[in-house]
Amino acid sequence: MKMSQAVEQSLVVLIMLAVQQDNAPVKSHILSSRLEVSESYFKKTMRKLRIAGIVTAIASKEGGFKLARPLHQITLLDVYEAIEGEDSFIHSTQLADRIFKGSDELVKSGTKEVLAIIYDAEQAFKQKLADYTIADILSHIGEESIEAIDWRE
Amino acid sequence: MKMSQAVEQSLVVLIMLAVQQDNAPVKSHILSSRLEVSESYFKKTMRKLRIAGIVTAIASKEGGFKLARPLHQITLLDVYEAIEGEDSFIHSTQLADRIFKGSDELVKSGTKEVLAIIYDAEQAFKQKLADYTIADILSHIGEESIEAIDWRE
DNA sequence: TATTCGTGTATATTAATTATCTATGGATAT
DNA sequence: ATATCCATAGATAATTAATATACACGAATA
């Protein structure tokens, strides 16, 4: 069970935007070349972040992407769900239906319980992600070094 | 981020074995046909469960698979890890290295923090799975109906 | 009016999952 | 003994999702 690479890529981009002075917009080709992915692929990921209200896109000369909200209002769950969607880790019951077809109804309820437990575990995972924001990540970086960074150069 | 089908298949098989009277061994071809997968594929999954010490294989006429331990000693985490292994949801840092190469060391530590948070969330997920056993699932099934089931028929 | 994002489509590559078939060898109950 | 069934392994295939690129036209704006 692996998390999409795009989630990590997104988080790194957000860190980059977060340390950009004055939240000045940074161009696609600069960010994508830093990530070493094509601008085309990069924009597909950024689109998801934009739709989720995490970044703002500015179409203009001197345009680019910037953060849409303060750092402490962007949780890791926001980013995760923006990229991965809200699908559950498991989505089935079809299997249970196949197996217990013809046998006791009460056994079928056992698999329903399985789904409930996995859903419960999934919620625990997501709650942890919701507990942390980009600001928490940035708090591990020294103030001085942040002021010195301009990704547009 | 999706859980392997094999995890759900395994749980269903364990439920079937759990309600089998006297923990009598059930043959591969019976279980695999119930799951509607080939016996060959089914055995590959069962092998993982056997290596994890969850089921016992009996090679003999009147052989088959049975549970290796009491129901309450088989957690959902045991099953999950038997099938999915112990890989983390995210495994990288390579990306961080690529991006922050040439820029400040302190920024790199931001991505380390990201990995730590995701690992934390993953542990929360796994802890929930460890909190439940096959016995918990079975507790949702009436005693009477369990006594009536013989999967070997 | 040049620059840059927005959107959409088509396509390619890679990797993992899911799955089957076959075949040889080993354990054991009767 | 021998039939039955698991153990292991290798080759192969289908399906799906993730990852990725290229291209083209439209829209916003400094």
Automatic annotation (TrEMBL), chains A, B:
Cellular component GO terms held in the UniProt record: cytosol
InterPro entries (UniProt xref): Tscrpt_reg_Rrf2, WH-like_DNA-bd_sf, WH_DNA-bd_sf
SUPFAM superfamilies in alphabetical order: Winged helix' DNA-binding domain
Molecular function GO labels: DNA-binding transcription factor activity
NCBIfam families in alphabetical order: rrf2_super (TIGR00738)
Protein name per UniProt: Rrf2 family transcriptional regulator
